[in-house]
Amino acid sequence: MFGCLVAGRLVQAVAQQVAQDKFVFDLPDYENINHVVVFMLGTIPFPEGMGGSVYFCFPDQSGMAVWQLLGFVTNEKPSAIFKISGLKSGKGSQHPFGAMNIPQTPSVAQIGISVELLEHLAQQTPVASAAVSSVDSFTQFTQKMLDSFYNFASSFAVTQAQMTPNPSEAFIPANVVLKWYENFQRRLAQNPFFWKT
């Protein structure tokens, strides 16, 4: 019913069923994992009105299981990417796996999926740092580069009265740089790949 994927590793398509409505994937060497993808295989849908809460479990210093809610998957949202790199030192949250005796190994974490009512899923609050940014890294880089260039160029701005004539230097009015900056931002917001055309 579920699959789990970590970059650079084989897809896990067979979850360990630990209860009628609970499934677990082992994540060996979890300290080196940044993101995990959880998805439905498409073979068996959730029953009507049901979905799956997705949890991340890792052993704390004493070897006890720490569970954190990442988010959910449903028939309408059959896959999700979660950032787990910042969760490895966080506190646990309330979870449905508490009464189960799932073995913990020091370097192995787990992804747990609990089948629950959609109404219950809507009331849960995932760990904020598990959400993957909807803005891709290229767009973030481009925005930071634009800001840096504009701030750098603006730091050299002088008024006409402060200008010393120098025939070997060209001057660009600050309002031209500002107009370019605003146009580039607008185009980037409309289509991050506009520069490819």
UniProtKB/TrEMBL annotation:
<keyword id="KW-0675">Receptor</keyword>
<dbReference type="GO" id="GO:0061608">
    <property type="term" value="F:nuclear import signal receptor activity"/>
</dbReference>
<dbReference type="GO" id="GO:0005634">
    <property type="term" value="C:nucleus"/>
</dbReference>
<dbReference type="GO" id="GO:0030544">
    <property type="term" value="F:Hsp70 protein binding"/>
</dbReference>
<dbReference type="InterPro" id="IPR008493">
    <property type="entry name" value="Hikeshi-like_N"/>
</dbReference>
<keyword id="KW-0963">Cytoplasm</keyword>
<dbReference type="GO" id="GO:0005829">
    <property type="term" value="C:cytosol"/>
</dbReference>
<dbReference type="InterPro" id="IPR048364">
    <property type="entry name" value="Hikeshi-like_C"/>
</dbReference>
<keyword id="KW-0653">Protein transport</keyword>
<feature type="domain" description="Hikeshi-like C-terminal">
    <location>
        <begin position="136"/>
        <end position="196"/>
    </location>
</feature>
<feature type="domain" description="Hikeshi-like N-terminal">
    <location>
        <begin position="6"/>
        <end position="130"/>
    </location>
</feature>
<comment type="function">
    <text>Acts as a specific nuclear import carrier for HSP70 proteins following heat-shock stress: acts by mediating the nucleoporin-dependent translocation of ATP-bound HSP70 proteins into the nucleus. HSP70 proteins import is required to protect cells from heat shock damages. Does not translocate ADP-bound HSP70 proteins into the nucleus.</text>
</comment>
<protein>
    <recommendedName>
        <fullName>Protein Hikeshi</fullName>
    </recommendedName>
</protein>
<comment type="similarity">
    <text>Belongs to the OPI10 family.</text>
</comment>
<dbReference type="GO" id="GO:0006606">
    <property type="term" value="P:protein import into nucleus"/>
</dbReference>
<dbReference type="InterPro" id="IPR031318">
    <property type="entry name" value="OPI10"/>
</dbReference>
<dbReference type="GO" id="GO:0034605">
    <property type="term" value="P:cellular response to heat"/>
</dbReference>
<keyword id="KW-0539">Nucleus</keyword>
<keyword id="KW-0813">Transport</keyword>
<dbReference type="Pfam" id="PF05603">
    <property type="entry name" value="Hikeshi-like_N"/>
</dbReference>
<dbReference type="Pfam" id="PF21057">
    <property type="entry name" value="Hikeshi-like_C"/>
</dbReference>
<comment type="subunit">
    <text>Forms an asymmetric homodimer; required for binding and nuclear import of HSP70 proteins. Interacts with ATP-bound HSP70 proteins.</text>
</comment>
